[in-house]
Structures are given as structure tokens and as C-alpha cells.
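Colleagues,

Please find the record for the two-part complex below.
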Amino acid sequence: MKFGVVQFPGSNCDFDTFHALRNVMKRPTVLLWHKDHDLQGVDCVVLPGGFSYGDYLRSGAIARFSPLMQEVKAFARKGGHVLGICNGFQILLELGLLPGAMIRNKNLKFLCQHVHVRIENEKTDFTRAGRKGQVLRIPIAHFDGNYYAPARGLKDIERHRQVVFRYCDAKGNITEEANVNGSLGNIAGIRNREGNVLGLMPHPERASEALLGSEDGRTIFESLILSLERRKPARRPVRRERARHD
Amino acid sequence: MKVRILVSFKDSVLDPQGQTVKNALHTMGYAAVKDVRQGKVFELELEGATKKEAETLVPEIARRVLANPIIEKFDWQIIKGR
């Protein structure tokens, strides 16, 4: 399978994500320029972290108007896989591909630290290499990660099992203390109802090699590879003891 | 014509910045301040638009771009011309 990492002016995790996918996960990966109209035949679009357009107006609010994002929107509507990391998650919310919005962290601080998140739904194309309740240690780095959705919308999200990751302590307990940015329901990552779009605030690419202090982020990339290569004969199967195929 | 648009959080959304300003005001002794909500102000200069056209155009722009309707509300007025 082929990954595409979108670059906006102000993206700063584009090369880290590119490196994790191409050199660590060893899958063909291309960089996609926000002004282009061509997704270059990728199987999965990744919107990386950073500060697209300087976060002017609201985080992700301007990036959604990029020419390439119109293609990404159409790609997602046809069932194409889209992963939004941090600023990429914010863009997906602004674009309307995921429900809800982000407001400033509850303590008004830019948070740059390792956090624990628990896999709430392991039956998604982004988590099938993990297991239910598994705790992942992945860093966050954001100012606006305080997830908000109106009460009714939040109910829908929970009912359709769209919450994929929640902030938790090291043992997997969902606590107020572990909810560093104040997100409703400790929400760290959600998917759309169809299951082909995921957004999360933690940075899996920054936790993809032992050298970086954690390899837990690989679970998300491995899941995508498992999910998307299952449909075609896999050239290089991903080794994973606990891999689940439905 | 010049219009001014005020975007602020809906009452149901917590405004951590407003809260911090309120706390600062209390620390300074302004006990009468009961609540603070922070927002953004935009001034748009419109060319060749009538008042009637502005009444369609401005809310559309506010809804589509300037405000995120999930968390924010807006208010606007004409401040120059007509």
C-alpha cells in the first residue's frame, strides 16, 4: 500500500511522518503539496501535525480550503482512508469529516509531553493490530486539543462507538487527572461513522522507534497496513502476534 | 460599507481564556465582575454591496469561515456607510 503525507505551509511533522511510514514501516510514501489536485494514487492520506497557516483564525480553519483538501474530501467520501494527526485532526474537524471541534487546553498551556491513551475500539482499520483496553504511550504537542461536541452530538459519537482513544493513566484508568487538555469524555481520538477517517491528538510518528522512547505509535500504522493490504496480496506482511482480523 | 463582526463562544461552551481574565480581575479587586467571555472582532470593508446584500453576505461569511458554528456564535453591525 502507498501512503501520502500532505504538506501545508506551517506543517512541521510532515517529514517525521514521512520517515516513520517510509523508513520504519517500509511502505511507499509520497509527499503531497496542498496546492496540487492529485492524490497520486495513494491508499491512505495522512494529514500531519504542525501549525498549518500559522493556526490563524482557528487551528485547521484555513487549511481546509486548500485545493488538495477538496480532493481529500472526495477521496474520504468514496471510502478512502484518511488519518489526521494533531493539526491534521483539527483540519478534519473544520472540514466536517469528523464531528465536533477543538477549544484551547483547559489550563491554557501548550502541552508537550508523553501521555497514555487507551484503545476503546479495536475493531477499526486504525486499531486492529492492537487489543481492546490496550494502553499506548504516545506524545502530544498542542495548544488546542480540548475536544468539544454538543451534548447530543457527543451521545451519537458514543453510541456509534466512534471514540477510538481516550486519555488514561499508565494502568488504563480513565481519570480526570489523565485528561490533560480537558477534553469531553477524555476523548483523544475519534473516527467517522463509516470508519475510514480517524483523527487523534497524540503523535504516533513520534512514538514509532525505540530510540524515540516508545514504539506504541506503530500500532496505528500497522493496523492501517493490515487493513489495507488485506485487500490485496501483501508484499511484505506485517508481523504482529496479536493481530486481529475481525 | 464597513461591517464589524463579533465572534464569541456559545454560552454552553467553556471559555478558559475568559475565565482566566475573570480570575485576574478578581485578584485585582474587581469583585463586581461576575463573568468574562472573550471573543474575536473582524472588520470587513464591502465594495458595492447594498444593505440588503450585506444582510445575506455577512452572516454567510461568518457561518462558513469566521466562526465555527459548533462552538461559536456571531453578531454583526454596519459601522460605516450604508
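Chain B touches chain A through twelve residues (CB under 8 Å).

Comments are welcome before we finalize the supplementary table.
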